[in-house]
Specification:
The complex is a heterodimer.
Chain A: E1 36-40, H1 50-54, E2 60-62, E3 68-70, H2 80-84, E4 90-94
Antiparallel strand pairs in A: 1-4, 2-3
Chain B: E1 3-8, H1 9-19, E2 24-27, H2 34-45, E3 52-55, H3 59-71, E4 77-80, H4 82-87, H5 89-97, E5 103-108, H6 122-126, E6 133-136, H7 140-155, E7 163-168, E8 176-181, H8 184-190, H9 214-246, E9 253-256, E10 263-267, H10 271-284, E11 289-294, E12 296-298, H11 302-309, E13 314-319, H12 330-339, E14 347-352, H13 362-377, E15 384-386
Parallel strand pairs in B: 2-3, 4-5, 5-7, 6-7, 10-11, 10-13, 13-14, 14-15
Antiparallel strand pairs in B: 1-8, 6-12, 9-11
């Protein structure tokens, strides 16, 4: 689950269990409990960025060619991107093992 | 100058909350707490208290509001009783582990069914383990003093925990007593403005109340437990400071005529005054009886309690709560586990009395002491006894 070096003890845990550093979820692999992953068919993709807009975990970023690629460190496999894609370019594929 | 006035205890508590300069008061009325929040609402409406009074739609909302207001850095007060307190249950565990200071006066009342608006301690025993600091007041003056003390301790940066002051419904809440209402100047000296360690501030964003995955949940709870244990030092310190300013000294456990006592009654709350009268009467009869009164219930003052027992051979612990199917009442169970296998520990007998507004009279206390004395000679069959129940 969480990175082992980020695991705290009761003496080092933050006061009230608050998160004092905004956006620190980026430091953790938050998506490794995923049961399915999005796979994009570049033939169908029109680079509209709707997947990037709708992903609740901000997993998408654009590559050099302008395609949107989901980062599997953070993708939780919810399937929202596949549902929202206007070209049905995204297929949800079960994670094996 | 502080003034001594004849005043209903609920009104006096509201005045104390005003003297404490509470800033946000989300509250929902329920008997027997109503007069406290009614009076606070009046004070705010009349411009006598510069606070937000939020007339919420339920106790669940009241406690949720309290969490938000404390997180935003405002001095926060609310009050409840019985079924209303239970409606807060879902939220009550949240401000404590999140270390959000706030003060709640609970006017203790029986839990329905059957419907009862009258006094006992069942409502607060349902909430025994919510991780709030808890004290029990014996009389009106103490209710006022403990309310001021609660703000001081809760908001101490070394403590930073929510705090419940228990007052017996009707027996205290609706009784007019002579009470010394302190000076604003003295209260200001005792109670500095609330400066939380962390607060919700858009200029310095933080997250309060994130998920605690299995890898950190235990650590978060242990940190809370340790904070409670550490809090005792600051609770005592605040009582010392209170005594310096206001001249009234409070202890976590009060002893009454315990020197050379063989049997000690153990009580919490307003029945302790009747218990003292009973002790006096039994002492006049030549019986070596005394009284221990627990004022600080959470964190439990283990050391102080053990010390206060002295050489007593028998403890008669009076619970105002009957948990069906349990080994005995919660205070009885606490004391038994505290003293288990300690060499020379007294025999402990658990009694349940004063449920749903039934008076615990001097005669009842004498009956409890007589029973404890007999049980001590021969172990009783039952692990607790309900006093004054009609066997027919
Ligand atoms: S929503 Fe579909 S079409 Fe649009 S960029 Fe994403 S994958 Fe391509
Ligand atoms: S499956 Fe969900 S989490 Fe993963 S990339 Fe798509 S929208 Fe984001």
């Amino acid at each position: 689950m969480a990175n082992s070096d980020a695991i705290v003890g009761w003496k080092t845990i933050t006061f009230g269990c608050h998160i004092l550093e905004p956006g620190n979820a980026a430091n953790f692999r938050t998506g490794d409990w995923r049961s399915q992953r999005p796979v994009t068919d570049k033939e169908k993709c029109i680079k509209c960025g709707m997947c990037w807009v709708y992903c609740p975990d901000m997993a998408y970023s654009q590559d050099e060619e302008g395609y949107f690629v989901a980062n599997m460190e953070y993708c939780k496999g919810c399937g929202i991107c596949a549902h929202e894609c206007p070209k049905d370019a995204i297929t949800m594929v079960p994670e094996e093992g | 100058m502080s003034k001594r006035v004849g005043i209903e205890v609920s009104i006096a508590i509201a005045e104390a909350v005003g003297l404490a300069r509470a800033e946000v008061i989300p509250a929902y009325p329920i008997t027997p707490q109503t007069h406290i929040v009614e009076h606070l609402s009046e004070m705010v409406a009349n411009g006598e208290l510069d606070a937000e009074f939020i007339p919420v739609e339920s106790e669940h909302a009241a406690m949720s509001c309290c969490c938000g207001s404390s997180a935003a850095g405002a001095r926060t007060f609310t009050s409840s009783s019985a079924q209303g307190l239970s409606l807060m249950s879902e939220i009550l565990y949240i401000p404590s582990t999140m270390r959000l200071p706030m003060v709640m006066v609970v006017a203790n009342r029986a839990m329905s069914a059957p419907i009862s608006i009258w006094n006992d301690h069942q409502d607060i025993m349902v909430q025994r383990d919510i991780g709030w600091i808890q004290t029990f007041a014996e009389n009106g003056q103490e209710a006022v003093d403990l309310t001021l003390h609660a703000f001081r301790v809760a908001e101490d940066r070394n403590v930073s925990l929510p705090f419940i002051v228990n007052i017996d419904g009707f027996t205290l809440s609706h009784v007019i007593e002579p009470i010394e209402l302190p000076d604003q100047e003295d209260v200001d000296k005792f109670l500095p403005p609330f400066k939380p360690r962390y607060k919700l501030d858009p200029r310095r964003p933080i997250t309060m109340g994130p998920v605690g995955i299995p890898e950190v949940y235990t650590e978060a709870k242990v940190a809370h437990d340790m904070a409670m244990r550490k809090a005792k030092r600051y609770i005592l310190k605040a009582w010392d400071e209170f005594a310096e300013i206001f001249g009234r000294k409070y202890n976590p456990v009060e002893s009454y005529r315990t020197e050379d006592a063989e049997i000690l009654l153990v009580t919490m709350g307003s029945i302790s005054e009747t218990a003292m009268t009973a002790v006096d009467a039994m002492r006049d009869d030549g019986q070596k009886v005394g009284l221990l009164r627990i004022r600080l219930w959470r964190p439990f003052p283990s050391q102080e309690f053990r010390k206060a027992i002295g050489k007593a051979k028998v403890l008669a612990v009076v619970d105002r709560c009957l948990p069906p199917g349990a080994v005995c009442g919660p205070v009885g169970a606490e004391i038994r586990s505290l003293l288990y296998k300690i060499p020379g520990a007294p025999k402990i007998f658990s009694f349940v009395a004063g449920l749903g507004g039934r008076d615990v009279t001097v005669a009842r206390f004498k009956e409890i002491v007589d029973k404890a004395r007999q049980f001590a000679k021969k172990r009783p069959r039952e692990l607790y006894e309900v006093i004054g129940v009609r066997e027919k």
